User: Fold these one by one.
Assistant:
Number 1:
Amino acid sequence: MKDTDFTYNIVTYGCQMNEKDSSTMAAMLDQIGGRESSRDDAQLLIFNTCCVREHAEDKVFGNVGALKKQLSERPNLIIGVCGCMMQQKGVAEKFMKKFPFVNFVMGTHNMHQLPQIVLQVVKYGERVCAVWDSEGEIIEELPLRTGKISSYVNIMFGCDNYCTYCIVPYVRGHERSRSKDAIIREVQALSESGTKEIILLGQNVNSYQGGDDRFADLLYSLNEIPGIDRIRFMTSHPKDISLALMNAMKDCDHVCKQLHLPVQSGSNEILRRMNRRYTAEIYREKVMELRQLIPDIALTTDIIVGFPGETSDDFQQTLDLVNDIRFVTGYFFKYSPRPGTPAAKFENQIDEDIKQERLATLLKLQDGITNEYNRSLIGKTLHVMPEKTADRHAGQIIGRSDGGRTVHFLGSSDLLGSTVPVTITDVTGNTLLGVIRN
Ligand code: SAH
Ligand code: SF4
Ligand code: F3S
């Protein structure tokens, strides 16, 4: 592989933060002569890892391990591993030892060093293990991947909430917010390159610049940027969601009427031990307030089942909350003990089969609710922004409604990136089918 002309592929695990990091890394590699290609023929393969649950880590071990066999056919393949998993104490060194064919390992805090590390590996044949212990300053000059209809925009990094189950604060560092000016400049540049939708990212966007409604203020400003038709954001922490934010969502015509508001549990005792700093009653009240202001808001959530000490009564309270609130959809996880987090050492860890059973019960409940919600949309006309053409059905395009639902309908690719009124005609699984309203 030459240092000025090479192909690469980035395999991404985990959340939208990682997806955004992967797109920044791709833009950095493009600047030094890289060209994106497929996982099977790229000369440089990078794994951007996640460690939020054990399952995510197992996948990385499996996939990196499987490369060993391919090395006889791809002897010059360069392999790099980065992301949250590598940022955990001691993991990078262990990984380098376990997989001697991995050429470099990099943490989350020094991602901007990627081009330098790649050149070091390629030119000097070195093995590099570069992980910073703590976060540095926010780096503003990183290149952008432009020209996509929908683009992620970081507004903050890290997290200071320390929910007792969660590893993110340990691998993403303290909470740091970008300046409003830098965000606006980035969104303007994206808009000029053809982006129509931005998704603002932060672990807790409601505490942007320390809270005090600074996030609401940011939304009002971004709402004015020409060419940006849709603004979404994630994630909101229920303890910090304010009336000012709810009003901003209502007032700003480009802000989608959709909110991801992870509740995690319906039991106050579990919420207390999770260090979530709200009660189920407060959560329900905030949802009521929101629905009073924006009646058709599409609410989604995250829930962990089988947190240490979760009794069947605690779990029933989660089911009751889900049944009452009626989320559009939910992301449900079995509690996974993460090394170094307080909850991993809590007593009364729950057996795997109970976790599995609770997960299945919750999924079944939500499936019914999601299905009922989807069916309630039949006959309604939604504003859909088509983002791609369907691979399997000629003539079909795929987009998302304002509320975040995926909609398939017949239409020309000229419509990509515009907003189209689509009348929903049917539902299959989690997908809505529709026709353009003339
Ligand atoms: N900052 C976001 C979530 C980040 S992690 C928030 O506060 O909502 C995404 C989701 O993964 C969490 O909402 C939680 O439901 C889940 N999660 C995090 N740690 C977990 C663990 N140890 N076991 C199981 N699920 C976990
Ligand atoms: Fe993790 Fe809690 Fe921070 Fe979300 S708010 S990233 S769940 S510590
Ligand atoms: Fe995201 Fe996983 Fe890291 S959920 S922040 S990629 S640990």
Note: The first strand starts at residue 6 and ends at 12.
Number 2:
Amino acid sequence: MTVLTLIRGSITDQRVDAIVNAANSSLLGGGGVDGAIHRAGGPEILAECRALRAARYGRGLRTGQAVATTAGRLDARWVIHTVGPVWSATEDRSGLLASCYRESLRVAAELGATSVAFPAISTGIYRWPMDDGARIAVRTARESVTAPVEDVRFVLFDEHAYGLFEAALAAED
Ligand code: ADP
């Protein structure tokens, strides 16, 4: 049975098979989680991202999609890069945010990962409201996780995010 857990801390400190990166479509690095992952994981990750851009993803990775690379020096086997939608007050993009969790879990299962760590995708630079982002994350992970993934962790950077994920988990039960 899959267990969803919450952790307060940095995603770069997780020891799991796969760490999910809140990337942008360029795959060439950015701020927030993306910057932290490339800083901690070293240049090998960026080198693979560049190779992906040169091959299958010449126009970048589309919003809601996911692709894996090495995890470099991180204590993980893979980084799964996914591109969250930018929050919009006028357009409902929640299907794309759900797709990030679903596609990342699909890639993780395909790779044979048993444990996956997620950040709260889109809730930083992309401004998605944390309470809604938490509900989408928890619901989609529960619905779409498949074997061999059995350990899904949401790694929240601060107490506020942690509390909202806790509430989203409690509401599901
Ligand atoms: P996005 O561009 O998808 O919004 P960000 O990286 O800006 O992605 O932020 C996503 C969420 O991750 C935010 O809630 C932010 O506070 C949080 N965050 C930033 N750095 C880390 C980290 N090292 N570990 C876990 N979460 C982080």
Note: The chain is about 40% helix and 20% strand.
Number 3:
Amino acid sequence: MQGAILVLSGPSGAGKSTIINHASPNIGEYYFSISTTTRQPREGEEHGVDYYFVTHEEFEEGIKAGDFLEYATVHGNYYGTSLKPVNEALAQGKLVIFDIDVQGHRLVRAKMGDYVTSAFITPPTLKELEKRLYARATDDTSIIERRIENAKEEINAIGEFDFVIINDVIEEASSQFTTIANAARLKQNREELEKMVLHWRN
Ligand code: ADP
Ligand code: 5GP
């Protein structure tokens, strides 16, 4: 039994968390990779549920210790994916879902491309993104402005992804996500294919 990785990227406010939550009952058993970050928790966010919230020093100790599969600086804070729980979930044959930025996607693809399926999630327009970020009301105006500027950069990486989901109507986006999650589980890695070829030869 082999596991698989599904990377989701897209501007902050695109609806990644909303889509995962909405599709959750329909995508079978999966492990959501909880990232570590140096950013401040938003109201309602919990340590160990949404993120592991750590100090700058703690994060840099983690880097030195080789704890991260990938890490990047996003909007001025460190964000990283811990290697150990991901390897454990893959060994158990689970679908591992990452919500990481486009830099993280590049790093994970370079290291574990054989296992990776990826989707870029975007709202229909930049104006709609702005509207959703203000409506979410979890960040100050200056932070929202920074996220919108970042979104203009991130969209340039859209061509690096296997799939694109335009999150206009949540039900449709969630159904597309379910299809992609099922396809990710079916992706065969090279090792599996080589085994199959050997089996046919012998
Ligand atoms: P992300 O995880 O990508 O940062 P969120 O899932 O937090 O984004 O979504 C940002 C905001 O947009 C939330 O307030 C959410 O309720 C809202 N939202 C998400 N999808 C839709 C949609 N299809 N239509 C309208 N609002 C949406
Ligand atoms: P937010 O602060 O809105 O939760 O996340 C900001 C951005 O950081 C999002 O684009 C999100 O996908 C990205 N991000 C979250 N965790 C990680 C991670 O572990 N690694 C990388 N590279 N990006 C992450």
Note: The chain has a mean pLDDT of 94.
Number 4:
Amino acid sequence: MELPGVSASPGIAHGHAVVLKDTTLPRVDGPGQSPSTEIARFQAAVTQTVSELVQLQQKTRRLLGADFAAIFRSQQTIAEDDDFRNSVIGTIHREGCRAEAALYRVFDGYRALFEELDDGAYNRSRVSDVEDVHSRMQRILLGIEHPDLTDLPAGSVVVATELFPSDTALIDASNVVGIVTEHGGATSHAAILAKNIGVPAVVRVTDVVSTVSPGDLLTVVSTTDEPARVFVNPTGSQLDVIHRTEERLTRRQGMINTFRGQDAVTTDGQRFTVSVNVGSTQELQPARAVGARSIGLYRSEFLFFKQPVLPDEEIQYAAYRDAAAAFSGGFVVIRTLDVGGDKQLPALPAPIEPNPFLGSRGLRFTLQHPDVFLTQIRAILRAAADYPVEMLFPMVGGVDELDAALELVEDAKEQLRARGHRYNAVIPIGVMIEIPSAIWTADALARRVSFFSVGTNDLVQYLMAADRLNGEVEAYYRPFDPSVFRALAHLCRTAAEFDRPVSVCGELGGDPLAIPALAGMGVSGFSMSPSSLADATRVIRKSTATEMKSLAEAVLRLDSQGDITALLRQHYNAKE
Ligand code: PEP
Ligand code: MG
């Protein structure tokens, strides 16, 4: 069987399907079997829960460190708590109900208790802990299989409706060879994860979750010159054709890989910075392996996902310092927490918003939680004491929120001074250019910060008013639209007046078709998935600064995405 889709990360992969079904648990009620049978079911679920939590502690210790593992230790304590167990057993006896129903009643009681006691972030994290234990037990009682993302078999192709940051934070990337999703686009979390760990991904594959069975042999074909597709249990003749394409791609990739680790400098001597985007601890190693020297975008959110408690200053400091130590020859740009929109923190749930992408996201969210923000700023300032660490604010729309954030940076410095901690008092601070208003106030922003980093994934969705995750409006989400290039040209002109460097860290910044035109407009840095680094370096090394400038001028005269893509492809093909 052959399922069509959209290419989100290039390559061809063969592996076995691991299917993530939607995990909304049905609420099961009604009378049970005999109380003794229901109690035995409940006891077995407790044993299984504890055993899963012990395993999770071992794995998270390996992936994220001892402090994170402690979170699952406290969940184990909840599952083993005598009062809790006696309450469930008592409810089964009293009401003659199913174990699932008794569990709901007891957990509803806990939830009400916590709500009454509500005294801030600590309590909310306890509620999330309790909820997590509850859904684990319900899932076990209901016999719903949920693949353990932290422990995937080697050669897994992950198949899901959609992958969220909370899934990708703990995924065992070393055993994933491909990703297939029903929703999403080139800038969805699944696509970004796939590119960052260097595996092919095909998105928008209709009904793939119900079509594919766990263990099916899948071949993911995601190339730029053929329509992307997924073969389910491919036949011998299909495999022969795929193998020929694979050989061709491997030869080409071999040629591209010879540019790994080289300086990104044009033949007439103009130098550019190429760096990588990192969204989890596991992505540090692939980034080193491709010869990256710097991290242009460290998406710090992953430290905050999955865990029902917020990472404290020490955990964050250790994570930032470790990343910076691994890239001490270059620089590391740490973006402050960028949640809201489709990214929800388990430890700090935000209210449901009718229009989340236009709601409390990024800097707006952290300004609403100054304690959380200050903790992170302190950790970044401390990591910057010994390493070239820079700080980047996401979702800046203008000087009001920027000034508020900069004031908090001063407060954080004051707190560190009072505590006698070492920190970098002159850390470079930059803003992400993701909201169109930031482009039109770039002069005012430039007076306050030292660099700009363009998040084209969001900038395109806000310029075009097309949700980056909504496949229905994919045709309107146009990264190569004239408006995108014209907006960036305006930004570069303003930034140049203030001598502020502009880099691009959205997906456009790793697109070898777009790079020469962006460079010609004045972009001086490109940050991207590790898998894009070698080709980005190659196109720069094969161009002259003069021709890139003319290319940019030609692009700015064109009327449509189609015309711009054709011109950029022509330039790219000429560099083979
Ligand atoms: C962007 O918007 O381009 C960006 C880099 O941020 P994210 O993809 O994490 O929203
Ligand atoms: Mg963004």
Note: DSSP finds 22 helices and 17 strands in the chain.
